[in-house]
Design a protein that fits this description.
Length: about 1400
Amino acid sequence: MMAASLLRRDKKATAAHLKADLNRTDNSSGVRQLQELLDSVLNPEKPAADTEALDWCKCLIAGGEGFEEFCKTVRSYDNATLCGLVWTANFVAYRCRTCGISPCMSLCAECFNNGDHTGHDFNMFRSQAGGACDCGDSNVMRESGFCRRHRLRTGENVPSVPRDLLLMSEMVLPRFIICIIQYLRDGYTEPDTLTERDLQKVLQQLEPQISFLEELTKMGGAMRTVLTKILTNQQTFKDLSMGQEENLYAKNNYDKYLSALKNSGLVSVEEKAQGGAADVTAGAEGGAGALGLLGTSAPGSPDESSKEEDQDGGQSVGQRKRVKLSSTTKDPSIIESLKHKCFLEELLFWTIKYEFPQKMVTFLLNMLPDQDYKITFTKTFVQHYAFIMKTLMKSHESDTMSNRIVHISVQLFSNEELARHVTEECQLLDIMVTVLLYMMESCLIKSELQDEENSRHVVVNCGEALLKNNTYWPLVSDFINILSHQSVAKKFLEDHSLLMLWMSFVSFFQGMNLNKRELNEHVEFESQTYYAAFAAELEACAQPMWGLLTHCKVKETQEYTKTVVRYCLETLQIWFDAIGFIDEPAPNQVTFHLPLHRYYAMFLSKAVKCQGLDLDSLLPDQEMLMKIMVHPLQIQASLSEIHSNMWVRNGLQIKGQAMTYVQSHFCNSMIDPDIYLLQVCASRLDPDYFISSVFERFKVVDLLTMASQHQNAVLDSEQERPMLEGALTFLVILTSLRIHLGMADDEILRAEMVSQLCMNDRTHSSLLDLIPENPNPKSGIVPGSCSFEEMLSAVADFKAPVFEPGGSMQQGMYTPKAEVWEKEFDPIMVVLRTVYRRDVQSAMDRYSAFLKQSGIHTGNPWPPYKERTPLHPCYKGLVKLLHCKTLHIVIFTLLYKIWMDHQNMSEHVLCMVLYLIELGLDNQVQDDKEDEEPCIEEHCHDSWFPGTNLLSNLHHVINFVRVRVPETAPEVKREPPPSTSSEASSFGQNPRRLTGNWRENLREAQVFSLVAERRRKFQEIINRSNTEATQVVRPKSSSTRWVPPGTPPQLVTEILEIRESMLSLLIKLHQKLSARQNSLSASWLEDMDTSRHAHGDGITAIERILTKAATRSRQSKRSIQEICGKVCPPVPPKKNSPTDKKTMDKEERRQRARERQQKLLAEFASRQKSFMETAMDVESPDAEAAMDLGASEVMESEVLYDCVICGQSGPSTEDRPTGLVVLLQASSVLGHRCKSEEAKKLPTSDEEHIYPVDTCGVAHDVRLTLMQRFFKDSSCLQSVSIGWDGGVYVQTCGHTLHIDCHKSYMESLRNDQVLQGFSVDKGEFTCPLCRQFANSVLPCRPGRGTEAGAWHTPTNKKTCVLVKEVEDLQEQLGLFPTESNLSKEMELVIKDIKNTTQKKYMDYGKNPGSPDNDFLFMYSVAR
């Protein structure tokens, strides 16, 4: 009754009256009156939208004053020292890297402008997820960065709050808050109930109430203290939460709350009933438990698979079995459902249930400046962590929700003090790792890597929404955030069971998103799952790894590193066992994701670089190293395969993966650790084994033979060159890259910066973005390291912005200084860091322009050789790679092949071979001082070289080599070969070990097989004890590997006489490149000017190597002088290699052109003379002789063609044919010729026809039909021509080009991202010179300009005699030319001609598809 009378009175008066009552010493009646009034006003059964209640609350709290005045008064008692201003997404805020302690620090505009940040490294950004101002919080930022207001520590001189000011608030607010909570309980419905679920509607109705709470928080510290007391008081919550006994509404309301609580644990109540075992039908949960090895594997429940049908068109979750793990976890409390003890806990619970409404988030965050609240709230947040994640996984708005979760968590976990506190008190680390594991377990599938059938390894399925939408992002981001605190990271690294749990989490990503090479048809649907895979590895594996590594920088933390390395190795071993890996990777498979390898690599690197640990103490045995090396090496080989278009049937996405792998945000977490790990393996394994493994993985073993022809069972001819280039480039990178092998952080930053600037001029922002973040933080001043700005000004000049004529402005760019081009340009680093191949070319073009401009070199320069930082002592073993016989044999073979112009050699191959030789000369192996005397032959009957030192092997002469070649190869002597021993005739590439009787025949003939060598070394390593095993060559691969499909020519063994050393080959290549017979005089070493050697072309590179060899070894110097002293015989090949003209000076070219001109003029004169003599004296008996003479002179001179691509001119040869650019078009115009002369009329009625009966086409048709009635079909087809009907019209612009130049031109068109107006895949292109449209290249016939007797003059022989002659000609078996590049091109042109014409002209006979039709078509074209 009293409440009713109070309600009728004026609100202000009532409030003043109640306040007076409550201020009395005996305030019981006042309390009773207030409670009754509130019971009536704050009745949760009233609709929430009724604002009357809110007005009452405002008046009561203000205690009779106006609410605005009350706010002002309370603000005057604000004692907060923190700003704490909260903002939402898209708010513009500031971050100062100089003042920040935590990377997440941010400031509002007011605090930033009132602070002093001049000269600091700050940026202004648009907030993505929302945030709060950290001004005044010394845990997150340095005090020097506080603004004026928060620097004063205002709390010290603020008067204390009068007791009666906030008295009413303390009484009214608990009731107001429980009222809001009751509305929230009432409005919530579970997502799986049938009723329409509209949480937004409930929230909209509560908007005014929550806004009111938010307003209260903004009144400052005094009011926040009151709110904190209320929100965290357990007694008040107990009293109000359940409601009074007799109130039925309150009881139902509380029951709703309890049922909502039920499923808040990781495992739902029903699952718990089953004793925690993995539950097969946990539909909504998607998997239970935290970790165990593979328990039950069950498909997702039906509703789940239909819900999550894979958008990507890959295997849907239903088809590929979901895998579940049994539940065993460290901490049961994570899995239990929640219990709430205060308002704050329940408020957070509903905030999560309602998927983090913005207003609630802002209210909870606005309270954070209050320290007591902050601690309680953080604990509450951690307690709800598992529940947050479960809600997030089910949410349809996971993006928005993620942002809001991070908005809260970043405020809590950026504070180290707080993070440490909750880690100790609430097991924050255990909770995070368990929750992450649980989350990923919901989308595991069986791995198909290696042994698909028996694999026990499980990986995440990148097609699932969880990964595709980055739903895991908030959790991972929190984890990275807390690991940035040293105290927390140390706790993590000390807890071994946690580390083991984390390693099993990382292993879920090991081998994900497996690519299988499509060999037959193009993949139907290009899956885009690789985005998800790369993002997952970077965020969930690499970022936490970098976080941990920052705390392993000093000697005191050695133990942590040892522990992580130990667990990495254990987990890797488990992984190898699970996928059934022995020693060979499965063919045609590649995964770019090996986080376990990368963890191992990065911790090894840190251990050696920063903690002074001994590398060997952290390495496993040789066998494990061999296993570890396989998959990273597979990735390097696959990169080459992808760029060689071997994966083209997998679509564009595979190229996308190869690019992402080396892209600046990923490279330091992916390709760099992989290369480093391979460097570690190479420094500890047998170098011969390693080198042969590399060439075997790159599939170029068959190519490494001295023979001019070979069969490659795995690669097409056009793929061999790029793969060989890839293998050699990889070896150069492996032996010359020093990022983890001894470079200081400053040097790394400098090298990265130089390589990016050399590719293109860059703006400041793009350069900042392109340089990998770790191991160099670009932000903050790391003691003892160079800042980004200093380094930039040291290596680059700034080009100021300029106005363009159109009025637009070009940005200011940085361009490399001249001395950087001269001394620091490192093409190897550029190759490692380029996403697009064209960037390498761009860097070379810029380098070349610089050399021309500064007058250092005018021709086409080769990539310069750069001296390397010395190796850290731990990695000295890497140098052995450059000093092993296998590599020297490969180098020798390649030098020989390039000199002999074998196919698929290129300038790039020579460049890399020379680079390897020079690296070998610069990095000598210290310990073994080898004699320069060759050792006794008996001791090395099966080895090419006496020792392993490159310096002494350079001048070692190889006399004979035994090779396996196809019967058709030019090396094969036509007499029957000597009987070969069983070993030599087994499948293998050029070589096997010699047996006794062979050695008698030819003691010196060297043989070599990479595969056999590798197998032998493998056996040696596996069974060290058993000496017999070293002789065993496992036949496993050779018996199946080298048998090519079809029946190619048989392989026979031939012995080649070589009599060359590497030095002699280098000198001969020097002559070949400079196109001069004696390019090096005997005394050139004495008058050598070494200063000009740093930049130049291949000639310079060879001179530099010879000089280095001569200065380092007297024996080499003698050999060089000896070889140069002999006047060398002409170089065997007549062909011009592509490098010739590029390296030739302009003068020399002009000289040649003049000589050619004179030769032609002389030829014309002689031809004219012979013609005049013939014409003057027809009857003269000498006329025929004169004609012959003319013809023979003409035949002497070959026709020379100019290639419009490379600019060379030379004859067309069998091996390097030249072709004419042509356009082929189908045409049947000849068939429309008429016999009658009268003009054609257009038909004007149905009776008239446009095609008259007397056309050539009709006549021929009638003739063929008539003949087919009486004669055999094949005979008829040989007797007619169909050129009038299915002819091909050929046009040419008259330009010629080398066929191989044309191929690389087509390749560049294919790789060019710009859309062309023609179809490159159909062979269409534009002439590189005149841009005329063309679609084929006709090979020019090698030899002289005219062939005598090729055409028969008309005769008057009788028909029967002619028929007889034709029959005789047909009887003679044609001699088919041996297969050569020319014949292959002929074949391709015939195909082009056939493809140009329409299908119907290919089937004239009665049997469609018979070869007679093809012959008829080709005869007709020829006629």
